[in-house]
Amino acid sequence: MAKKFMDPHDVPKIPGTEGWERMYPYQYQFSKEDPERAAFESKQFWFYDGLHYPIPHYPFDLIWDEAWSMTLSQYTTRHWLVPPALGIDHRIVNGYVYISPVDVADPKEIEKRVPIFTERAGYYFQNWDRLVENWKKKMTKVINDLEAMNFTDLPEMEDISVIKEGLGKGSGYEFLRKWDAIIDLGLLCWQYHFEFLNLCYAVQVTFFATLNQIFPGIPQSSMVKMSAGFDPILFKPDAELIRLAKLAIELGIENLILKPLKADELMKELGKDSKGKEWLKELEIARYPWFHISTGTGWFHTETSWNDNLNIPFENIRTNIKALKSGKKLGRPTDQILKERDRVATEYRNLIKTDADREAFDQGLGLARLVLPYAEDHNFYVEHWFHTLFWAKLRQVGKILKRAGFFEDADDMWYLKRDEIKAALWDYITGWTTGVKSRGPSYWPKEVAWRKGVYEKFKAWSPPSALGTPPDVVVEPFSIALWGVNTNVVKSWLSGGEGGSADELQGNPGSSGVAEGRARVLKTVDQLADLQEGEILVATTTSPSWAPCFVKIAGAVTDVGGPMCHAAIVCREYGLPTVVGTGKGTQFIKTGDLIRIDGDTGKVNILKRAKV
Amino acid sequence: MAEKEKEFTLWYDEIDGKDYPIVGKKNANLGEMIKACIPVSPGFVITIYANDQYLILSGIKAELEKQLNTMGQVTYETTKEASKIAIKLIEKATLPAVIEDDILSKYLKLCERFGVSECPVAVRSSGAVSMPGQMETYLNVCGEKDLIDYIKKCWSSAYNVEAIMYRMNKGIPFLFNIGIGIPKMVNSRVSGIIFTINPINGDPSKISIDVSYGLGEAVVSGLVTPDTYLIDKVTLDLIKTTIGSKETMCVYREKGSDIVQKDVPDDKKKALCLSMEEVKELARVGKLIENYYGKAYDIEFGIDTELPFPENIIILQVRPESVWSKKEAAPKTEKKKDAMDRMLGQLLAGVKVK
Predict the structure, then answer these.
(1) Does the beta-carbon distance from B339 to A367 stay under 8 Å?
(2) How far, in Å, are A8, A43, A52, A327, A422 from residue A463 at the CA level?
(3) What ipTM was estimated for this complex?
(4) Using one digit for the tens of pLDDT, what is the confidence trace for A393-446?
(5) Which of B237, B238, B343 sits opposite A206 (nearest CB)?
(6) What is the pTM for the complete model shown?
(7) CATH 3.30.470.20 is right for the domain spanning B188-326
């Protein structure tokens, strides 16, 4: 077995994509220009962030990667001074993002950082609940500011009020200002996203390590069960759909809702009826904010929210009504989940033989339970509520530029970097102010067509799991807890495809149980519709908003994921056998293969290959 | 209590741990396990009182006393002689009808319950005083005639030379009545051992199961490398499975109480010998036993060929775990002044990748 991964500078170029680098920020490139930086790149350990990005990056969508690249690192390096760790460095290869945890090299420097970290992190732990309450206020303000923002076509002439009120500034300027403001809101939202998260992961890593010392080999699922929140906000949207289904039955209007009508037509019908009106009122209450849930992970412009497309929640409400009428119980039994959480924690605690270990256990569990609700809930505010609104607002800009002839399709905008969009807007606005034709319409369509070609080639390429040199020890908490980097994972990445068994793959246990079935390999969210009942979902990663698919599948396999990853938590909720962090599952397994997955041991076996 | 003391036979589920003076320790333990909902092989016991009445009613007691009196005090030198006399008398006498009818009526009920005419049973000695391995147990006994013969043999085994000497050393009288257990034989498809800890490192949060094909003998005496399962004791999730080579298996010789070895077919060697539901049920029962007795246990089990799941899971024998339970537990974590200090220590240590 190889000891190293491919050198990041040696990754082969895909023919026909030459020049792809200009689609992304220059600092994201691996480069040999500077020997010092090149040597650093070669000695670092880079792994593909498939946890967040199952597909190559659209140039604009890299905004969130840049945002977290800045912010996660900033908190580790400059706010908390986590003693042994600096930030996580980012690169892009053929459209795929690779990340690399960076350590503090000098032991003296680590020592110096210890008291600083203790003071700063200590302050947050001591004031946790108050600070989290404050965080919710800050976050809600960011979202309200975003909600108030809208982009419209530039007017033929300025409104008379601009003159009479002596405003002294024009719509073009306002447009550019608003563009800067919305980008700024996005970055601010991500500043807040990490305000607590680095500490959450540090706690998680500590608690899990302590448990492993006391109970060697304790399953991840047990550790999460003990510490997880029992009523995370992410389940609220589903709960609202169940509430609406029950209400429809109570009001006796379920047959009307069951009619296979489009959402807008159905709402019109409901508006004609007093019971229907009552239901619609409750629908509106549920929509804000709970329908601001992404149909994907929230990371990509291609994903919409339930509010963007009400047909999705209506379809789910219909499914719920039918289930309720056939006597099924719906919803999460939170009481039971809470009881089970406490039972598991108490039983483990009772098994501890020494006072010293009991104290260590209590310290770890206490902190874990303090921070876990935030770790689970921030995701709804940021990736769902904020992101889906953000994408919706930005789609307005794409449409405006399309009407101005810059693009053949409004979605072409996403093939531009955000700075390029700003430049295109300058072009559009100065054309408008001057009253001449902009250059954009003759410049961008050609460039976008080329980028689309490149993007398709990226999509067909399978990114290697890792590059560079694996270290002896990983100290960066996110890499350990979120991406699940450990001995097994690195070993499996090193052996994946070469020398490994031809019909077995080793991952991490995600959710208990064994499942056998046909594999369905999904590379993108929009392939979800292909899923058949009883299939085993194989994806780079999954997200809780894939909810409708979890009732269908027999189990799930992901390429990347650790104990805290969304996929593992949700699959446990659904009681689905799941293996996470297989490294190469989506390449190794083909749709139609008969596979067996073991969510207790982390093994995936191919029982019979599909006929090609 | 008064009535139980005058019974010749009792069903296992009519007795409990406190009844050991009436039925012997091993029997009382089995009754206790049934009370705790631990699945054991169904059957009945022959009381110590029955043994006593047999000796009195058949005149053995009087005869024995007479013969022994002529020998004088039994000493180490005369045990062999005394043993011979006692065994001969006990095995040759006729069992009084009141006792025999009682035993056979329970035996027939057991046969009826399993729908077989000559239900194979074990005849297990069970003294009110612990005398490990001093008396006999007979396996795979079938039919009324054999049953009665082996019961007498079992009674007489209390007068083995070793048993007599053992009692002499402990100051226990020569005449010694014992209880007998008559459980249905478990026709094990697979059998093995449950530890309610991880026997490798003493971790109390795990349950370990070693299991192979056939009778427990193969696993207990280390004839085979069994399959091993490691289970989380709290959640009963399976953590790790290792497939053993399981070359050979032990089975009973047809209608005989001795055991013969035979090869395990190749395809079965490579397969795990438990189903997932059996693993979980065994773990559940293991946890139940540990909780009932309040300490780690070492448990022999068999999975019966004929019975449906989950009745097929039968606990054969339980004893307290003896290795790790005797060691003093040392802390596994470092002492830290507070949670923050602990976190710092962990952040500095990181996670090994190589």
Answers:
(1) yes
(2) 12, 19, 14, 47, 31
(3) 0.83
(4) 999 999 999 999 999 999 999 999 999 999 999 999 999 999 999 999 999 999
(5) B343
(6) 0.84
(7) yes
